[in-house]
Design a protein that fits this description.
The structure holds two protein chains of two kinds. Chain A is an alpha/beta fold. Helix content of chain A is 40%, strand content 9%. Chain A has a six-stranded parallel beta sheet with strand order 3-4-5-6-7-8. In chain A, strands 1-2 form a two-stranded antiparallel sheet. In chain A, strands 9-10 form a two-stranded parallel sheet. The relative contact order of chain A is 0.08. Classes of the chains: A alpha/beta, B alpha/beta.
Chain lengths: 414, 487
């Protein structure tokens, strides 16, 4: 058999990697290549070097080492029983490809994952070896994200953390029952055990770094995980609850949600309609509410409907505000930051500007309009010097008035 | 014409001042002049700021007075940190009025030191907007500069790669080139590179940074074989199931496209996306109707099922049979030649062996619901004979839909899987029979699964091996019989 050309391997192994949502290259330690032998820098903010027509940022070379896999997870295009074409890179090939892309300023670094070949340990060794070649042989100082394999030897996961900026372990499904059914070879306890191990190692390395300048860094950009939405029966409240437990228990930097996407040669155990992409978007919004807007998980859950799902036609913050109208209107000239953050249509930056400006002037509705995209959305929930919503917050048809029109919805429903 | 210039035209008896900027991005120069002007108490509408090669002033230079020199006793000029850091960025904007705006704000800051906090102020907002545009342009430069390799590496006796020269052509919107040199030096410290732009160029040889004159696109190389790899990557990482062109355009506006090798692919990727997605859905995720609510409805639906290729063969669907409230369900692999002809499960040689073994174990087949993991007979034709073919994992998974329907309706307390195919259908994964046999496995719906070999396996063995396996088979059936008493 002729050896497969690199470009064909790249096609297969990039195609296989595209269902991983994460492409972040931000939040790691600052460093650059001055005084070194190689190339690369990270300056805190991630850089998106291109955008694909799916609207996603391309920041990293995101590929699998191989899409051969001994596991048989039903939602996964690379599962053992799938008929997709298979390919396999050597660690050296991936390192070379990363460097030649990096030199041309196409990427911030590498996001490497892999199907399980031979054994979990063997696969993990290959992932670590790729990172080692980049870091040690080429003094590469760009960003590396390694997907780690929970079943692998903890020592190997530890090595991955010493070489990579970020490590991640996918919890895959929001419920343990879903995991048992759709990813029969995986084990929820093992996944959480590995995440716990990474959390400890990160905390320990931080602590050592405070005391000893030259203590090795361990995954300075932290750990993240991914959940597939819509492949099992989990409701949005289940997902929000699981997410908040994961944030609490494992100090995750990010949880990525991936709307279950039709995959070629899908397993028949997934007799599913594809969930609307907007659902994924609403979950990210709820994630934002918890991380940046001071909402507790139970408050986010209050925004859900009777079936436990977030409304698709309006965002969760608006849904919450409509349910708890007695909390409004909020006076922009007097209210606390916490309350201003609850106003639908006011983002964190708009709130900052309101608070800075109101020291200088009494804000009128037109002043607030300068800080927001749509004053019409904000208006029913605030008071300003020349504005009070009077009856507006009590109107029964408020929700209908604030729901985006059909045309806008279609954009997401595609 | 700026309002400052108009005022100047009308009020000739007041002296006016023209400041000629040596470079469009020379913030330090502006800062020094602006400080002197404030100290001499010269209001903003008396000052024109003129860029090199920029719009010529409407007035001859002779109409302007010389810039006064403040004496040493002048008051200290006040400028907040927030203003300075933002002004430094805004000074790089291509707006010709930017220096006038900066001076106006500096002038106002002398009376109102916290002016920058007032985000509703017109000038403050304008400065914010300029700063934001410059930051965005810088960020896009970090992102969208594309180097091309012009000199192949490994030249005589040099360190590998050191001789390689990477050249990029980029068209920034604002005067950001010099301010962003540091980013590229830090990132590509050990590479030889040049960035050419219509506003000037930068060259780094690994040790020293040089500035050069403005360049043209034709000065830059026009290809690099690695771009084929990059384009292939770009096309492959894109998920056609989720087209969001607006989101792409927002972050990567078309004005940048012409200097990025991958963007030429976008039109065909978008056009192909809808088609690719519908193909993926057709070959992949099957759209199932709701589960039938009766066994008869399942039987009818199964007979028309063509969700896998087995349904297209010359055969008939064989539905399970037995009491619809049976406590025990026995699941085989698939109907064989005789079952296909008879339209009933387990009537061929394997079925006879099963019947005999059930009798020995004390299980009445009439009380058992007997069915198969796959409902159609899979075979290859060899002359007159139809040779059995094992179903693939995917075919088993596809047919699992029907078995789950049967289980949901019959609700057996115990399920006995005969052979690996049946076990896969019930567990969703391939297991080794020897590892899972002889013990109960809890299923999601609360029922209990037992696994043993398929009787046709026994038929293929001889002598001692067969005797041993038959003993184990009988033992498994006896265990199931014993469990039936308890559940």
């Amino acid at each position: 058999m002729r050896p497969m050309p690199i470009i064909e391997k790249l096609q297969i192994l990039a195609d296989a990697a595209k269902y991983d949502a994460s492409c972040a290259s931000s939040g790691t330690a600052k460093r650059n290549s001055k005084g070194g032998k190689g190339i690369g820098s990270t300056e805190g903010m991630g850089i998106c070097h291109a955008y694909a027509p799916d609207g996603r940022c391309i920041s990293l070379l995101k590929i699998l080492l191989t899409n051969h896999c001994v596991f048989d997870c039903h939602y996964c295009v690379n599962r053992k029983s799938s008929n997709v074409e298979r390919a396999r890179f050597t660690p050296q090939e991936v390192a070379d490809l990363t460097l030649s892309f990096y030199r041309r300023n196409y990427i911030e670094g590498l996001f490497l994952s892999s199907g399980i070949v031979k054994s979990s340990d063997h696969t993990m060794e290959q992932l670590v070896e790729t990172a080692r070649i980049l870091r040690e042989e080429h003094d590469f100082r760009g960003y590396i994200h390694l997907k780690t394999i929970p079943e692998a030897d903890p020592e190997l996961i530890h090595q991955a953390g010493l070489l990579a900026d970020r490590v991640s372990i996918n919890v895959e499904l929001p419920t343990d029952a879903g995991l048992t059914r759709l990813a029969p070879d995986k084990n929820a306890r093992q996944i959480e055990g590995a995440m716990g191990g990474v959390k400890m190692a990160i905390a320990q390395a931080r602590d050592e770094k405070k005391r000893f300048k030259h203590a090795p860094r361990f995954a300075p950009a932290g750990q993240s995980t991914q959940m597939i939405v819509g492949a099992d029966g989990a409701k949005d409240v289940d997902i929000v609850g699981r997410a908040s437990r994961l944030y609490d228990n494992f100090r995750l930097r990010r949880i990525y949600y991936s709307a279950f996407s039709p995959i070629p040669d899908a397993s028949a155990v997934l007799p599913l309609k594809r969930p609307p992409l907007i659902r994924e978007h609403r979950l990210y919004q709820s994630d934002w509410l918890m991380r940046f807007y001071g909402f507790t998980p139970s408050e986010v859950m209050q925004a859900a409907d009777d079936e436990g799902n977030l409304p698709l036609d309006i965002d969760p913050k608006l849904a919450w505000a409509l349910k708890f109208r007695e909390q409004f209107p909020v006076d922009v000239n007097r209210s606390s930051r916490e309350m201003l953050l609850r106003v639908p249509g006011l983002g964190t930056r708009a709130v900052d500007r309101i608070i800075a400006s109101r020291r200088h002037r009494t804000l009128r509705l037109n002043d607030v309009a300068l800080f927001t995209v749509s004053i019409a959305k904000v208006r029913p929930f605030i008071c300003a010097a020349d504005w009070a919503p009077t009856l507006l917050t009590d109107r029964a048809d408020l929700r209908a008035q604030l729901t985006p029109g059909g045309e806008q919805l279609d954009l997401f429903a595609a | 014409m700026s309002s400052g210039a108009e005022a100047l035209w009308r009020e000739r008896h007041h002296p006016s001042y023209a400041i000629h900027m040596p470079a469009p991005d020379d913030f330090a120069f502006w800062r020094e002049r602006a400080r002197a002007l404030v100290q001499c108490d010269i209001p903003p509408d008396r000052v024109s700021w003129i860029e090199p090669g920029g719009t010529k002033s409407l007035f001859a230079d002779s109409e302007f007075a010389d810039v006064p020199v403040p004496d040493s006793s002048s008051a200290i000029v006040r400028a907040s940190k927030a203003f300075l850091s933002l002004a430094r960025q805004a000074a790089l904007h291509s707006d010709p009025d930017r220096f006038a705006l900066l001076y106006r704000l500096l002038w106002r800051l002398q009376d109102d030191t916290r002016l920058m906090e007032d985000k509703a102020d017109f000038d403050v907002r304008r400065l914010d907007a300029l700063g934001k545009a410059v930051r965005r342009d810088s960020h896009k430069m970090h992102a969208f500069v594309r180097f091309r390799l012009v000199e192949a590496g490994g030249q005589e006796g040099d360190e590998a790669g050191h001789r390689e020269h990477y050249v990029a052509w980029f068209e920034p919107e604002h005067h950001i080139l010099r301010a962003n040199a540091g980013f590229f030096v830090r990132r590509f410290a050990n590479m030889r590179w040049s960035i050419l732009t219509p506003r000037g160029s930068l060259h780094w040889n690994g040790e020293v940074l040089c500035e050069g004159p403005a360049a043209q696109k034709s000065d830059a190389p026009d290809g690099d074989p690695t771009e084929d790899l990059w384009r292939r990557y770009y096309a492959s990482i894109f998920n056609p199931a989720r087209l969001k062109i607006g989101a792409m355009l927002k972050e990567m506006p078309k004005k940048y496209w012409k200097n990025m090798p991958e963007t030429a692919l976008i039109p065909e990727l978008v056009a192909g996306a809808q088609k690719r997605e519908s193909e993926m859905v057709a070959t992949g995720a099957l759209e199932f109707d709701p589960q039938p609510e009766t066994l008869e409805a399942i039987e009818k639906a199964v007979s028309q099922c063509r969700k896998c290729p087995i349904g297209d063969l010359e055969n008939h669907a064989v539905m399970g049979e037995g009491p619809r409230n049976a406590d025990l369900m026995i699941v085989g692999e698939q109907p064989g030649d005789q079952e296909d002809l008879a339209g009933r499960p387990f009537v061929g040689p394997a079925g006879q062996l099963l019947d005999a073994a059930l009798k020995v174990a004390g299980i009445d087949r009439a009380g058992v619901y007997v069915t198969n993991a796959v409902k159609h007979f899979k075979f290859v034709q060899r002359g007159k004979r139809r040779l059995h073919q094992s179903p693939t994992a995917k075919e088993i998974d596809t047919c699992r839909w029907w078995l789950e329907g049967e289980r949901a309706l019959v609700r057996p307390k115990l399920v006995l899987a005969l052979g690996a195919s049946a076990a896969r259908s019930l567990l969703g994964k391939t297991v080794s029979i020897n590892k899972v046999r002889g013990r109960a496995i809890a299923l999601e719906d609360g029922s209990e699964l037992w696994v043993t070999v398929h009787p046709s396996y026994l038929l293929r063995l001889d002598g001692d091996a067969r005797a041993a396996q038959e003993r184990d088979f009988a033992a498994d059936l006896a265990s199931v019989r014993a469990r039936m008493e308890m559940v």
